Amino acid sequence: RNTGLLRRQVNLSGVSNGKLVFWARVNSFESGDTLAVRVSTNGTSFTTVKTFVNGDDDNVYHRHEIALASVSGTFWIEFDANMSATNDQVWLDDIEVRGVR
């Protein structure tokens, strides 16, 4: 497909210094193709914390770490791919939410 949405609910109650860690590989993006990484505290209104665009598409896995210091309790993570063709590709691997209890 040329689009895709992955959304998961996570509970960070009692956790400090939260962070989202994942590996991403992006290939064949053209102008206007994006992969947005978003978080939400209510599952409805999302804030973009990272966007992949044309130029990030070297077809090599890269590790990404995004601080979630202001997030506590239940929240949602979303990966939203909006691409123009079926040969535009995104791979996500080892998606983790980490923190200190």
- How many strands appear in the DSSP assignment? 7
The whole-angstrom Rg is 14 Å
- Topology order in helix (H) and strand (E) letters: EEEEEEE
**If helices are DSSP runs of H or I spanning 4 or more residues, what is the number of helices?**
0
Q: What is the CA-CA span between the terminal residues?
A: 39 Å
What's the oligomerization state? single chain
Strand content: over 45%
How do the strands line up in the largest sheet? 1-6-3-4
Q: Tell me about the biggest sheet?
A: 4 strands, antiparallel
Helix content: under 10%
State the low-pLDDT regions, or none. Answer: none
Based on secondary structure, the structural category is: mainly beta
- Broad shape: elongated
Mean pLDDT: 92
Description of the molecule:
- The structure is a single chain.
- The chain is mostly beta strands and 101 residues long.
- The chain has strands at residues 3-11, 16-27, 34-40, 47-52, 62-67, 74-82, 89-100.
- It has no helices and 7 strands.
- A hairpin with a 6-residue loop joins strand 3 and strand 4 (47-52).
- It is elongated, with a radius of gyration of 14 Å.
- The N and C termini lie far apart (39 Å).
- The model has no long low-confidence stretch (mean pLDDT 92).
